[in-house]
Design goal:
Triger factor/SurA peptide-binding fold, alpha+beta, globular, 12 strands, 11 helices, four-stranded mixed sheet
Length: 372
C-alpha cells in the first residue's frame, strides 16, 4: 500500500516546499566522494540529491493540488513554484536551527501526528505503518525526521511570527466596509464531514461501521471538536484538513444531503447518513442567507484573510533576519531567491590531477564535495 507522505505546509503559499527534509548521505569510507553540495547553511548541507528529491516531491505536490488542471496550467504552476525551491530548502534549515536554539521539543506532537497519518491510511498498527513506509524505499527514521522537522518549523513560525500578528476589531470592520461585494452571496452552506467507508463490506461489517459513526456523532454532541475527530477517524480525502468540504449553493449537493444541511444553522450537525460508499456526518460551519452577509457571519473569514496577508511578508522578514545571522553559501548555477545582499557563494574548484596539488592558486573559500 502506498502511504502518502504528508507535507506540512506553512500558512503561506510562498513556503510551499519549505518542509522537505534533506536526505542522509549513506556511510562511506573516508575520502570517498558521494555527491555535490548545492548549499551550506551554517553546519548543515543541502546536497544535489536533496535538491533533486525536493524537485520530485514538488512536482507530485503540484499534481495533487492542481487536479483537473490542463497540462499547460500544471507546467506553469510547477515552474512558478520551482523558482523558490532552493530558497525553501534553505529556509527550512534556518528554522530547524532556530528551533534548536529555542530548545523546542515536539516529540509528543510527533507521536500524535504519526498516529493520525496511520489512521488516515487505514493501517491497523504502527508496525504496519512502518512497513508501508519502508516498502516505498524510505527509511523509517528518515520519514520520522521529516515529520519532526515539519513540526519544528511550524512551532518556530507560530511563536516567532504568527504570535506577533495582531488583528483588531477595527481592522476587521474596515476590511468589511471596503469589500462588501465579496460578501454578497446566494444562500450557501460551508460544510465539513466525517466519512466512514463501507465499500466491499458485508452486512455485519456495515452495521459495525454505523455503530462507530453514531458513537462519533454522540461525542460531537457532548462537546468534542469536530475537526479533531475528523482528522483522527474520517476515512475520506478531507480528513487531513479536519473534514473541510467547502461552500455549496442550492443544486450542488445530492438531494438527500441538501435537504439535511440547508435546514441547519451554524455549528449544527446532521444525523448519521448512509450513502452508497459509507456513512457520513456533516457539520454546517456557516449558513449564509442570500444577500449581503452580516459582519458577525464573515468575521472569522475576514480575520483569516488579513492574517494570511500579513503572514507572508512577516515570515519573509523573519527569515531574512535569520539569514543575516547565519552563514549561507550557494553553489553557482543555483539560485536562492531570498539571498541577502553580500551573501557568499560556493566557489567552483577545477578538477584535481592525480599528482599532489601545489598550494599556489588554491581557493580558500571553496567547498569540497559531500563525504559520507
Amino acid at each position: 500500500m502506498k502511504v502518502r507522505i504528508t507535507s506540512f505546509l506553512l500558512p503561506v503559499a510562498a513556503a510551499a516546499a519549505l518542509l522537505l527534509a534533506p536526505a542522509r548521505c549513506p556511510a562511506q569510507s573516508k575520502g570517498v566522494i558521494v555527491e555535490d553540495i548545492v548549499a551550506r547553511v551554517n553546519n548543515q548541507i543541502i546536497t544535489l540529491s536533496d535538491y533533486q528529491k525536493a524537485a520530485k516531491d514538488l512536482a507530485e505536490e503540484v499534481q495533487q493540488d492542481c487536479q483537473g488542471c490542463s497540462p499547460d496550467k500544471l507546467q506553469s504552476e510547477l515552474e512558478n513554484r520551482r523558482k523558490n525551491l532552493l530558497r525553501d530548502l534553505i529556509d527550512q534549515q534556518l528554522l530547524i536551527a532556530r528551533a534548536k536554539d529555542m530548545d523546542v521539543h515536539v516529540e509528543t506532537d510527533l507521536v500524535k501526528r504519526l498516529d493520525e497519518i496511520r489512521k488516515q491510511n487505514n493501517l491497523a498498527t504502527m508496525d504496519d505503518f512502518q512497513k508501508a513506509v519502508e516498502q516505498q524505499g524510505i527509511s523509517w527514521e528518515d520519514y520520522k525526521s521529516r515529520i519532526r522537522d515539519g513540526l519544528l518549523t511550524q512551532e518556530v513560525i507560530r511563536r516567532e511570527v504568527g504570535g506577533h500578528i495582531d488583528i483588531g476589531n477595527d481592522e476587521v470592520k474596515k476590511y468589511y466596509d471596503a469589500h462588501k461585494d465579496e460578501f454578497q452571496r446566494p444562500e450557501e452552506v460551508d460544510l465539513s464531514e466525517i466519512f466512514l467507508k463501507t465499500t466491499g463490506q458485508n452486512p455485519e461489517e456495515i452495521a459495525a461501521v454505523r455503530t462507530r459513526a453514531e458513537d462519533l456523532r454522540n461525542r460531537i454532541e457532548k462537546g468534542e471538536d469536530f475537526a479533531t475527530l475528523a482528522k483522527r477517524y474520517s476515512e475520506g480525502p478531507t480528513a487531513k484538513n479536519g473534514g473541510e468540504l467547502g461552500e455549496f449553493e442550492h443544486g450542488q449537493l445530492a438531494p438527500q444531503i441538501e435537504d439535511a444541511v440547508f435546514k441547519l444553522d451554524r455549528n449544527q450537525i446532521t444525523d448519521v447518513m448512509q450513502t452508497k460508499t459509507g456513512f457520513e456526518i456533516l457539520k454546517v460551519n456557516q449558513h449564509y442567507q442570500a444577500g449581503l452577509q452580516p459582519l458577525d457571519k464573515v468575521e472569522t473569514e475576514i480575520t483569516d484573510k488579513i492574517y494570511q496577508k500579513k503572514m507572508e511578508p512577516a515570515l519573509r522578514a523573519y527569515l531574512a533576519q535569520l539569514r543575516e545571522e547565519s552563514y549561507v553559501q550557494v553553489r553557482p548555477g543555483y539560485t536562492d531567491t531570498a539571498a541577502v545582499p553580500g551573501g557568499t557563494v560556493i566557489q567552483e574548484v577545477p578538477p584535481t590531477p592525480d599528482t599532489p596539488a601545489k598550494k599556489k592558486g588554491k581557493k580558500k573559500n571553496s567547498l569540497p564535495k559531500a563525504n559520507g
